[in-house]
Amino acid sequence: MKFSWKICVSVLAFSLLIVGIGGYALLSALFQSSFQREVKSAADENRMLQYSFAAYWTTTVQDRSSGFPETDVRRAAQAMQEGMSGTELRFQLYNQEGRELYDSGAEEILRDSQREALFSAASGETGARMMVRTGEGFGLATVSTVLMEDGTLLYLETDRDVTALFADRESQYGIYRRWMAGLLLLQGLGCYLIAVWLLRPLGRLSRASRRIAGGNLEVRAKVETGDEIGQLAEDFNHMADNLEKQFKELEDAARRQEDFIGSFAHELKTPLTSMIGYADMLRTREMDEEERFTAANYIFREGKRLEALSFKLLDLMVIRHGVLQKRSVNARWLAEEIQGVLKPALEKAGIALQVLVEEKQILVEPDLMKTVLLNLMDNGRKAMEDGGRMYLLGRTEQQGFSFYVQDTGKGMPEEELSRITEAFYMVDKSRARRQGGAGLGLSICAEIVKKHGGDLSFQSIQGKGTLARVWLPS
Q1: What is the percent of the chain where pLDDT is above 90?
Q2: pLDDT tens-digit series, residues 114-166
Q3: How far out from the chain centre does Cα 341 lie?
Q4: Closest CA to 381 of 417, 343, 412
Q5: Which tops the pLDDT comparison, 304 or 143?
Q6: CA–CA distance, 379 with 445 (Å, rounded to integer)
Q7: To 10 degrees, what angle do helices 366-382 and 331-348 make?
Q8: Which of 117, 131, 154, 171 could disulfide-pair with 146, CB 3.0 to 4.6 Å?
Q9: What single-letter DSSP state applies at residue 350?
Q10: Sheet harboring 400-407: ordered strands across?
């Protein structure tokens, strides 16, 4: 069942329950009020007849020496009936034993057992009444006692037809049910239209989710309201944004993995091909001493390059999964150590180095941080084949400490900057291989800085140089 139908059925069921119970309770209360008025009217009529009989007895029967013979009772009752000839009041008189003494023409609505129960309940000064069903109608019987002067007790019964009262109640119930059916029909139609209108955003949200499931990650739900459904649409769009971002990251990771495998295979294939070729020459050809030395030396150099490559890959894995042993060192001391290591190579390449680093205690793993700065500065040296200037700067900033390595070398295209920390990625592959590089240095640097909780970033302009920044948290 659709959600809109569920809403309609639920609202209709609730309305039917509440309005139905309330309506029937109201009609019942109105009926009870009308019935009580009928009961009061019947009691008033019975009481009036009771007083009237006493008055007619006084004026009709003069001789009381013989007690209250039944003929005198009938005579007084007859006189009272004649005096009420213009009314529709009917009554019956019974003696103390329950035998009928006079009947003014009232319709019998009580059985003998019911009458006896009423006479028993009306003993004394209290009256009694009973509601009875008469065929297809209803009647209200009221009994009161008339106490004569000698203590004789008479029972005065009056009957009142209340069939119309019950008929009105059934008619009101019927009208109410018809009105309820019509109103529920209109309410159901209105509720369905409102539910469809309110749930339109959910339909659009469902269609958007199916399109995303089909591969279109750029789809977004339209936010039209500020209610819970609008909030749901905003949350859905936020989820879609994160999903698209993560999907792109997975695509980038898959691409990097493919590039890594391809580059690694290439890095192995080139030296192995040469090594196999020279080894085959040594195995199958007669060579003089110099040729054998040249072939063996080439095999040795390429083997050492593969060994260095394997060590760098091992270092990369160790850094990624290892635990750093940090300690507090002076940033200027660290810079001076690096300056001492690189000074001969830089002077030989015709590169002037300037070091400006603040006196600041930083929490690092010293050997690994030296590796980072040495790699960055060595890359700068390789980019300045014709000499130039290099700067190593260090200062406190952004709740941490930053090292800057700047060179005046060849620089890099801006689109290459996002990939230079990928394993085996080289901007200028021929120059890198000529200088003994494998494309792993910056990958190792990035992992070391990441392990320190810092950030490694680059800025570069082709023909002017590159600026590398290492930010470390306090």
Answers
A1: 14
A2: 888 888 888 655 688 888 888 778 988 999 888 877 777 888 888 888 888 98
A3: 61
A4: 343
A5: 143
A6: 12
A7: 30
A8: 154
A9: T
A10: 351-357, 388-397, 400-407, 465-473, 455-461
- Res 75 pLDDT > 80: yes
Give residue 136's Cα distance to chain centre.
Answer: 60
CATH 3.30.450 fits 3-170, yes or no: yes
Q: How many residues does the chain have?
A: 474
Contacts of 370 (CB under 8 A, 6+ apart): 334, 337, 338, 341
CATH architecture for residues 324-473: 2-Layer Sandwich (3.30)
The Cα–Cα gap between 353 and 150 comes to 145
Q: What are phi and psi of 69, to 5 degrees?
A: -65, 150
**Residue where the block lists tokens 């008339």:** 146
Among residues 268, 370, 256, the alpha carbon closest in space to that of 309 is found at 268
Sequence ranges of the domains in the chain: 3-170, 220-322, 324-473
Determine the Cα–Cα distance for residues 313 and 176; give it in Å rounded to an integer.
87
The two beta strands, 153-161 and 91-94, are antiparallel
β-pairing verdict for 351-357 and 388-397 = parallel
The pLDDT of residue 264 is 61
Task: Classify residue 69 by burial, with Cβ atoms within 10 Å: 0-12, 13-18, 19+.
Answer: exposed
Residue 395 clears pLDDT 90, i.e. is over it = yes
Q: Print burial letters for 122-156: b (CB count within 10 Å at least 16), e (below 16).
A: beeeebbbbeeebeeebbbbbbbbbeeeeeebbbb
Which tens digit of pLDDT belongs to each residue from 319-374? 766 777 888 999 999 999 888 888 888 888 898 999 999 999 999 888 888 888 98
CB contact at 8 A, 401 and 463: no
CA distance 117 to 410: 123
What are 393's strand-pairing partners? 356, 404
What residue type is assigned to position 287 of the chain? M
**Cβ(53)–Cβ(146) below 8 Å:** yes
Write the CA distances from 455 to 231, 401, 403, integer angstroms. Answer: 35, 11, 11
Contact 353, 343 (CB under 8 A): yes
The token duo for 262 is: 């391809």
